[in-house]
Structure formats: C-alpha cells, structure tokens
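Q: Structure tokens for this one, please.
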Amino acid sequence: DGRGADGVCAMPDWESNPVPTRSGHPILFPFPGRLRDGKLPFEGHTYQLALTDNTKQHAIHGFTPRNPWRVVEWNGGPDSAFVTGEFTLSKDFPEALPTWPSDFTLTVTYRLRRDALRVEATVTNLGDKPLPFGLGYHPYFRLPGVSDADVGGHVLQANMGELWEAENNLPTGNRVPLPDAIDFREPKPVGAVQLDHVFTAPPEAAPRVGGLSQLAVLSHPDAAGCVQFLVGTGFQNLVLFTPAHRHAIAIEPYTCSADASNLAARGVPSNWLTVPVGGRWSEPVEYRWVPGEL
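A: Here is the predicted structure, written as tokens:
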C-alpha cells in the first residue's frame, strides 16, 4: 500500500549492544561458519586464525563482520537507492594478513528497490598467491504485519535436498538425507524446531526468477506477501538458524559448507572457491518481496 515496513530484523538493543552476527545482514568472509581449530590448510601450508567462536576452540565467520568497512559510493532516488562498501584486508584488518594466503578486496553493493534488496558481491585477489575463500550472508527475517510471539508460525519452503552431517557444529564431510523434522522442500511452519543446520544440493530444476535460482520462500498466513530468496549459481548451500529468542529466523545463503577448507584438504567437495592471482569472482543474491501468495 505504499508504506515502508521492516523485513530484515534487528535486535532492539543494537545501538547499545551491537553484536555483529545477531542482527540485520551480516557478511561472512573469507569463510562462513566455523573453521576447525582455526586452521586453514592451503597449498602445503597451514595458517592459524584467531579462535573467535563462543567456545574459543574454532574460528568463525571470517574477518568482515567484526571490523569496519569503508563506504565508497552511494546514491538514490524516489524508487531505489544503493550503497557500496569495501573491505580490503591490508587496509581494514592488516594484522590478519599473515593468517590468510593472499590479500583481497571484498566489494558489496546493496541495491534497494520497493520490492527487493539485491546484494552484489565482488571478490578481487590483490596478492601474489591464489586466494581461497567462501562467502556467506546471515540475514535475520521476520515478515512485517505478523504479531506472533516467535517465528513458529512462519511458513518456510527451502529447495535443498541434503544436509551436511555435523558434530559439535562442524561438518563430518558426509552429506545425508534430510530428517523429516527439518525437511522443508514442501512448505510447512517452522514450528518449535531448533534450526542450526547447513543444507546443500539445490535441485537443478529449482525455480528461476530474473536469472537467479530460488533457494527458499518465507511466508505467513497473516503477512501481506512473502519473501523469495534468490541466488546466483555460486551459492550452493543454505544455513537455517533459529536464534534463542526466536523473534526471527536466519535464512543464510552460503557459497560453501562450514569448515570448507579443511573438508577440501581431505578431498571432500565442499564448494570451497579459489580466485587466481589478479582474478575476480562476482555473484548476486536477492531478497524479493512478492505481494500475496506465490
């Protein structure tokens, strides 16, 4: 009806307690999820990262959520707006340079329209060695117009055919069939299930919208529409996470599995990516509001 509404959920105490992966749209780079023991094996060398997860046993979510970015461009008009940020390892977190094989710039542009938020990422290898990486987004969603106490009544449909088996939040390397309780290939309410899982194997025949594949749809009987989660071909994994407060659900496109570098070193296909010296990689993700029902 022409009025704005929040679909991406931020914690009410964000201004006073800005925990970087608990609100909004965190960007997880150069690896999403956990790296076992904070170790990155690559081309015969093992790099040691700071142990940043809540157990202080593993590294988690890369460098970009916890450090400032630089805004390099922005503009807007009556129907759209954009802002572009850059994160360069050597400029923005130089103390971490010894812990990663190559310097890089991650450039992210948010393009906001009345019916969509498009996220365009470009990874540039600035160093003299190949650049290994994974990219993930950690957005929290709660549909506008819904007054439920938690997200149990939200209806989720996710086009994912397998699950990364995990022990202590780290993948074993096995991909297993979906247990019934977390099989969302057909739409169903989130309910009381506790989600913190990495899914994979999107079907080749997944619906496509504007050249992008539909990974998921979030709806609610009381909402005036639903949100489509649309991705480029580089995003082959999806994390579903219900935080303890359950006021939102995180629906997270990942390019790779968690602990992807260690899985790749074991010969497990984990979608871990590498950009050659001087090379670039780009992929979009889009969250699109669709009035009514799909």
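A few notes: Helices lie at 89-92, 260-265. The radius of gyration is 19 Å.
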